[in-house]
Amino acid sequence: MPRLVLVLVWLFSDYLQNVYRGWVWPLLGFVFLPLTTLAYAFAMHQGAGAWTPLGIAAVVTAVLVDLGLFRRGTRRRGGGSGRRREIVVHGERVG
Fold this sequence. Notes:
This protein is mostly helical. It has helices at 2-12, 24-32, 34-46, 53-76, and strands spanning 88-89, 92-93. The chain has one domain. The chain contains four helices and two strands; from the N terminus they run ααααββ. The protein has a two-stranded antiparallel ribbon with strand order 1-2. Helix 2 crosses helix 3 (34-46) and helix 3 (34-46) runs antiparallel to helix 4 (53-76). The longest helix has 24 residues, at 53-76.
């Protein structure tokens, strides 16, 4: 969903162009950290180009959510440690 919002904001407003000078950072943000890209744009607009406590909180929260979504996605695809978990009940393997 953040990628869709990022594309719509980019197409129908100049919200991102006022913050990011060029297309490289928004493109990298679209690929790797879309929610953080939006949060940074919000932070810079909200603080008139300066960092505020609300802007910092928004960016930090967005980074944590983006990284959490990335980690959850790799876990779904079978990434991670590669170990299978074994369930043992009263000495008998059940799963």
